[in-house]
Amino acid sequence: MIKRASIYFFLFLALSGISCTVFHENDYWRKGVPWTEKDSWYTGFYTYPWGDDDSGWIFAELILPVPNSRLDKAIRLLSDVPVVRLDIEQAEYILDQRSLNPEILLKVIVMEEEREAERIEKKSTQISSEDISKKMKNWAKDHRHTAEKARNLQGKLNPYLVRAVVLNEPTGAFSAYMKSDELWIEHFQLERGPVPMKKYPVVIFLESQPLKVYTEILLAE
Fold it and tell me: Which of 14, 75, 162, 195 is in the most buried spot, having the most CB atoms within 10 Å?
């Protein structure tokens, strides 16, 4: 069960009883309701490559938005290129964090996924319905698969500063998918009125440097 920031954000809205309609940028322009001018970093997604393949989703914990205090510096670094390789010291400076360690982030993911798998497996033994019990055991397997994916990434990740765009960063979350040498990054957010589209760099821990970066915005209102 690969963690997607935008999916969890959307589920939170649904469970909270918030009625929301999701719009891509093109939907708004077709409706003649331009809530913002396109930023130069905006590309849109020419395709949605994932389909049923979740292997390319990046863990939400590995996508770290640059804080406001470092935005200008990060934007300047990305003025001519969509992605920049960083070392850990540079990533710590850009994120204004100390002791940044992807190994610790991955260990936390493994621990949480294993704990959830154990919880579901235990619960499945208390269910009288065989069908439901079987489904729960499959969910537990998904969590163990996710834990194994995180475990396999240990020692393989490096930080990259990557272009992204937002409308209202505090109300949303980023998700990202990588396939071959292409990276798709989107920001899902709440918004009700016209606001400027803004450059908003993120640091992402990846196994290799993407050669192409595609940015998108999803909007709920």
Answer: 162
Where do the domains of the chain lie?
5-100+157-220, 103-152
Task: State pLDDT tens for residues 44-96.
Answer: 888 877 777 778 999 999 999 999 999 999 999 999 999 999 999 999 999 99
Q: What is the pTM of this model?
A: 0.83
H/E run at residue 159? strand 158-162
Residue 77 to residue 74: CA distance in whole angstroms: 5
Single-letter amino acid, residue 141: K
- 175-193: pLDDT as tens digits: 999 999 999 999 988 766 6
Alpha-carbon gap, residue 132 to 141, rounded angstroms? 14
Helices marked H in the chain — which ranges?
Answer: 5-15, 25-31, 71-77, 88-95, 102-124, 130-152
SS3 172: coil
Q: What is the pLDDT of residue 2?
A: 47
Q: % helix / strand / coil in the chain, to the nearest 5?
A: 40, 20, 40
